[in-house]
Amino acid sequence: MDKQDCKYGASCYQKNPAHKEKYRHPTKETSPTKEPEPETSSKRRSDSPVDDPTADILEDIKRCKRPATPEKDDGNREEAEQGSEYYGITRQRYTLPEVPMDVGMMSDIYDPQIEFSKKEEYKELCADPVEFIRHKFLVAMPACFNSLWEFCTGKSQDKPGEVFEKLGLRLVGPFDVLAKKFTDAKMHEPGDYLRHWRFYYDPPEFQTVLVKKGSGVHYGYWRDQPEDASGLVALNDVNKGCEIKMIGENIFDAVIHFLEHEVATTPFNKAQIATTKKSLEEFAKQRDIPLKSNEKIKARGKNVVCKTFHKAGIVVPFDRKQELGYRELLESDASLKKILARFDKIDNAADKIEFTAAMTELQPIVTGAFIAVDECDFGTALELATDLFCHGTANLHDVMKPLFITAYSQLKRPQFIAIIKSHLEDRRKGIDLDLLTK
């Protein structure tokens, strides 16, 4: 039986056996000279998917790759010139919205309004000392903090913050808020407030509130957790190093400790020292504030998992039966100090080879601390980070920062993350650390 010639000849794309059985597909040599019927665009789309130039576009559309639709343009003057055919697809023309030439000038209008809003918010904070301290210093103050301010106000209505200045003791930090020193001060970046009276070796757990004038001796509240309001106070002399000593359970213990151990006694102030101490003791007794008690310090000592270089130790959740929450570092304190001593005279930017060589000894300890974190021993990373911080070498900041962040994150102490990051960004030596003088 004679077959009809397929109109597509040898170029026919059909693979169907029934089609091949019905139609003949001559080769180019034997194909008829009759011109094939021209293909319409509709036939190309429906009958020839292999050669369809819009196939890729349609596939992209199916995959949601098309760009966002810009603003519709119903009266484009260029439409007649450029036409509306796009790869065989009839479409509506669009145009992007025009950007005003003066858009850059909008900041001239809105920036003053934003600045005004910031100033108004700052004024509201200054009017509420509790909220200001919580907002700027990220902590809440113990009850004894306000009690000492009440004592000072009773001694001097005009300048309560200067009651102890003649004896060489200055109230700083959050006390500056109660003294309204921030009211007329210029606004600073958030990190500046966290660095206000933060000495070189003050970890995030330590907040300075009293300083001995002209020295590195300073007293502060110690918090194992940001929300801790136990009132424990500690002492550090930055000129002697990182060691921190727990000295009492409230701020009155700190002032009395200063009067007994740190004040410069002369024949001219001896009577004033005695009078001030007696007044403090009587005020504390009237308000049932225990002095020189060490019950809270003993209770904390039972929860300390390791001493660290600053000797105040760290407190983290620790299950002693299962030994979960803390494990010792891979090296002893003595060995770790020897390893860290190699970094003392190295500039990690200029002396990359020496720094890398020193890190070969330290890296296994760091890695071990992170492995401990993976196994829920979060205290190990905090111990190592604190030891690096106490060692004091600035070129180890980038090493200790991830340890601090990881440990505080797992221990749910985010305020301490903000404090340590701000401190390491501008870790200043010396004793002139008053933000209000900058």
Automatic annotation (TrEMBL):
Q: Might you name a Gene Ontology BP term for this protein?
A: DNA damage response
**Compositionally biased intervals (Acidic residues):** 49-58
Q: Where is this region: Disordered?
A: 1-89
Provide any one GO MF term from the record. Answer: poly-ADP-D-ribose binding
Name a GO CC annotation attached to this entry. Answer: chromosome
Q: Could you list this entry's UniProt keywords, alphabetically sorted.
A: Chromosome, Nucleus
Could you confirm whether the keyword Nucleotidyltransferase appears in this record? no
List compositional bias (Basic and acidic residues) regions by residue number. 18-48, 68-80
Top-level taxon? Eukaryota
Major place of residence: nucleus
Per its UniProt record, what InterPro entries does this chain match? APLF_PBZ, HPF1
Compartments it resides in? Chromosome; Nucleus
| PBZ-type domain span | 3-28
Q: Which family does it belong to?
A: Belongs to the HPF1 family.
Please identify the protein, giving its name as recorded.
Answer: PBZ-type domain-containing protein
* Gene name linked to the record: 6049713
